[in-house]
Amino acid sequence: MGALQFGLATLAGVGVSLLHDGSARPLTWLLALRGVAAWGVHRLLLHPHETGQSREPASG
Fold first, then answer.
1. Of 40, 18, 42, which Cα lies nearest the Cα of 30?
2. CA 46 to CA 41: how far, in whole Å?
3. Is the terminal CB of the chain with fewer CB neighbours within 10 Å at N or C?
4. For residue 28, how far is the Cα from the chain centroid?
C-alpha cells in the first residue's frame, strides 16, 4: 500500500510540474480530480449493486 501511495504521489507531482503556470491552479485541479476519482472508487467498491433489492434471501 505504501508503494502505491508513493507512486501515485510521484505521478501527481509530475502532473503539477507539467501544468505549472505560476499559480496554484494546476495543484487545485489535480486535487479536485483525485478527490472525484477517490469518490468514484469508493462508490464502486462499497456499493457495487444498488438496485433497491434486498441481499437477504427470502425466508419462507
1. 18
2. 8
3. C
4. 15
Q: What pLDDT does 8 receive?
A: 87
29's grid cell: 485541479
Q: Tell me the residue length of the chain.
A: 60
Q: Which amino acid is at 33?
A: L
Computed on alpha carbons and rounded to an integer, the radius of gyration of the chain in Å comes to 19
Kindly indicate the confidence band of residue 57, based on its pLDDT and cuts at 50, 70 and 90: low
DSSP 3-state assignment of 6? helix
What is the rounded distance in angstroms from the CA atom of residue 7 to the CA atom of residue 42?
20
> Which residue's entry shows cell 509530475?
14
Q: What is the pLDDT of residues 27-49, one digit of tens each?
A: 899 899 989 999 998 999 888 77
